[in-house]
Amino acid sequence: MNKRSIATVSLSGALDEKLRAIAAAGFDEVEIFENDLLSFGAGPRDIAKLCRDLNLKICAFQPFRDFEGMPEPQRARNFARAERKFDLMQELGTDLLLICSNVSPSSLGGIDRAADDFRELGDRAAKRGLRVGYEALAWGRHVNDYRDAWEIVRRADHPAIGVILDSFHALAPGFPVRAMASIPGDKIFLVQLADAPKLELDILSWSRHFRSFPGQGDLPVGEFMAAVAATGYAGPLSLEIFNDQFRAGSAAQTAIDGLRSLILLEDQLAPDWPKLVSEPLAPKAKSHGTGFIEFAVNETKAGELARLLSQLGFRKTGEHRSKAVERWSQGKVELVINCETDGFAHSHYVTHGPGVCAIALDVDNAGLAMQRAEALKTRTFYQPVGPGELEIPAIHGVGGSLLYFLDQAGKNWDTDFEPVASEASADALLAVDHIAQSMPYDEMLSWLLFYTGILDLKRLPQMEIADPRGLVQSQAVINGDQSLRFVLNGSSANRTLPARFISEFFGSGVQHVAFACRDIFAAVAAMRARGAGFLDIPDNYYDDIEAKYDLAPDLMAQLRANHILYDREGDGEFFQVYTHIFDERFFFEIVERRNYQGFGAANAGIRLAAQSREVRPASMPRV
Ligand SMILES: O=C(O)c1ccc(O)c(O)c1
Ligand SMILES: [Mg+2]
């Protein structure tokens, strides 16, 4: 199995913090990025000792720039400079120097000239037992393609000179990975892995700001890896991610995400390259929708929430035998209101105020889901259960909430509830349509990998939504039969509604839950009759809808009168309506889909503006 490594440039913090985070996540090796060392307060010997203590091998020191193909006198200077870096590497205790292709305007082209420089450098490195790897930067002046870098290494024909392959530099420009097959595995000194979203951007800015971990972007990193595996390469797989959010985020979390992405990539390739993995992961948990959603509240809020739920047509169907916990149901939707004064829900309430503290997902096999989640380094959750109570396996999810897994055995999660007789009524709401979670923008990639790594969820294209006070990015993940949909919303502006939610809520969390219905007009009429009110939508919006779509006048009138938003995608139609915000935190949405797959992104800005009018001004202190 190839060792797992990461370059220090991928994480935030000072070098020692980075190294500790890398070791704690479980990496075997590390690439030391020169700037991290130069800016650090202790010398290479101290770093070497720290790495030894952390049981981290330094697989490379990088980068050494603008070396090959220089005219004199720079050429001689470069060899002297390299000797100094060799000294440093010996203090660090690493044997591999990464040289990236020359970007200097003074550099001269010519494959043989470069090969000669590397052969001479190879002699100098070999004297000290060191090695040099050559990497083609996609924006290199003369060499920007790994095939040219390999040709130079091949002609240098020196045991201390090899090639370094970086998935970004090969895949972003669209170079075929087939040519890798001609490189002997032992001439590849290092493999660096990075993904990136598809962007129309110059390649240098793209690489320096938008790289991401494999699985978080759009590049075919799996194909690249399969080509690497076919060479017989046995060295480390090293993540090298230049990303603005990673530089700013939590080093510990980013390191865990990195390891998670590597484990997922290895596992994805395992059927063809069993040598890449020591133990295959349990399969992705097959999901079948939401089992229940649990709200943590106090007694006062429990009453208010219960009132809102009954206006929406929910019925109280159960009372916990021994706890202050109620069950509310409608269609397939199951909600739990928890106002216990200890236990997990209570701590969630104390930290975040009223809100969703847990989501239970229906899966094929909860045990396997837990196995996979644990192997992917998620935090598992255990809470002592009372005698006869069901223990539901759970992991920590967004914002410290829980994700429960329910399978056949967990189907009777409600055994602890005493059924409550309620008037039979026609259920307007059928099921949970989607769950939207707000989070800081720089956590979005992390939760994306979390959801798509553990569950059978696929990512839809990311959307950009204009809040009156800044942009909001919206990323949906959905399962195959669309019974489970999460929408992750993040904003780096700090006065947008999601951003204010995060500060009011003291962290990320569920900002809304949408319920599906078959006839939104009937559903809304019944809810209104029970006293429900809905978010006010301005007339301007309806004038625009009227102009855009040729809707029948009475349908238009109904949309207007009921504050229902409308969207169309091909011949698909979408209707949505929002409750007022509950306690400045979360709200409910009711949707009707007619052959429509999206989430009404066209309407999201309208909704955010309407909600901004309803909540207090951002500057006003809460009393
Ligand atoms: O952006 C750079 O300069 C840079 C440096 C070293 C690398 O390995 C790389 O892929 C990019
Ligand atoms: Mg690289």
From TrEMBL:
Binding residues annotated for Mg(2+), in chain numbering: 434, 512, 589
Residues noted as binding a divalent metal cation in the record, renumbered to the chain: 135, 166, 192, 240
EC number: 4.2.1.118
InterPro entries: 4OHPhenylPyrv_dOase_C (IPR041735), 4OHPhenylPyrv_dOase_N (IPR041736), DSD (IPR043700), Glyas_Bleomycin-R_OHBP_Dase (IPR029068), Glyas_Fos-R_dOase_dom (IPR004360), IolE/XylAMocC-like (IPR050312), VOC_core (IPR037523), Xyl_isomerase-like_sf (IPR036237)
Gene Ontology terms: biological process: 3,4-dihydroxybenzoate biosynthetic process
Signal peptide coordinates: none
Domain VOC: 289-408, 431-580
Required cofactor(s): a divalent metal cation
Pathway note: Aromatic compound metabolism; 3,4-dihydroxybenzoate biosynthesis
Catalytic activity as recorded in UniProt: 3-dehydroshikimate = 3,4-dihydroxybenzoate + H2O
GO MF annotations in UniProt: 3-dehydroshikimate dehydratase activity; metal ion binding
UniProt keyword annotations, A-Z: Lyase, Metal-binding
Physiological role: Catalyzes the conversion of 3-dehydroshikimate to protocatechuate (3,4-dihydroxybenzoate), a common intermediate of quinate and shikimate degradation pathways.
Family per similarity comment: Belongs to the bacterial two-domain DSD family.
Name listed for the protein in its UniProt record: 3-dehydroshikimate dehydratase
Native organism: Bradyrhizobium diazoefficiens (strain JCM 10833 / BCRC 13528 / IAM 13628 / NBRC 14792 / USDA 110)
Organismal lineage: Bacteria, Pseudomonadati, Pseudomonadota, Alphaproteobacteria, Hyphomicrobiales
